[in-house]
Design brief:
Rhomboid-like fold, 8 helices
Length: 191
């Protein structure tokens, strides 16, 4: 008779790899007093002739300003990401992360040239709104999507107009819009 044991499985490789990279980059950022984060893992307007401009357009999602910022984002990513990766696959999840990063960095550079952003908050919001499409059927809009979109995007609009902080509400909104558009596109044909 075989003994049944408990084993740990690698259930969401893309989400786990993303989280691990974020952890390493955050530790390096803390160890260097933010220098590595600023140089390589924060997006801001810079010369198009600088190759790092293109790298940072994607890499900024790995950088975080500290433990609190990192833990807040990664807890949501580890909560929502595995379910999304199981439904859509690793490649599509990496695609959502990349699209969210690029859209947010370009909009930030064009409309807010004096500010830089780092962190995976936009990815978190993309995952939140993408999650609300998991039970989507053609010709229907889930009430959960309407409620989630209203709560999260509404909150970010209000915070953007009233809060004085270092949080990029635009990044959150653009991440949410990316997640909503991708979720609708992937599920509109009753996938």
């Amino acid at each position: 008779m075989k003994k049944k044991g408990v084993r740990i499985v690698l259930n969401a490789p893309a989400v786990l790899a993303f989280s691990a990279i974020c952890l390493v980059v955050t530790v390096l950022g803390i160890m260097t007093g933010g220098q590595i984060t600023w140089r390589y893992f924060m997006t801001y307007r810079s010369s198009l002739a600088d190759p790092l401009t293109y790298f940072r357009a994607f890499s900024y999602v790995f950088g975080h300003s500290g433990w609190s910022h990192f833990l807040g984002n990664i807890s949501y990513i580890l909560l929502l990401g595995p379910m999304l990766e199981e439904k859509y696959g690793s490649r599509r999840i990496v695609g959502v992360i990349a699209i969210t990063a690029l859209v947010t960095s370009v909009v930030n550079a064009v409309f807010f040239p004096g500010s830089g952003i780092s962190g995976a908050s936009g990815v978190v919001f993309a995952f939140i709104l993408l999650t609300s499409f998991t039970e989507f059927k053609a010709g229907e809009i889930p009430l959960t999507f309407i409620l989630v979109a209203g709560i999260y995007i509404g909150q970010e609009l209000i915070n953007g107009l009233t809060a004085i902080d270092n949080v990029s509400q635009l990044g959150h909104i653009l991440g949410g819009v990316t997640g909503a558009v991708v979720g609708y596109a992937w599920n509109r044909k009753g996938r």
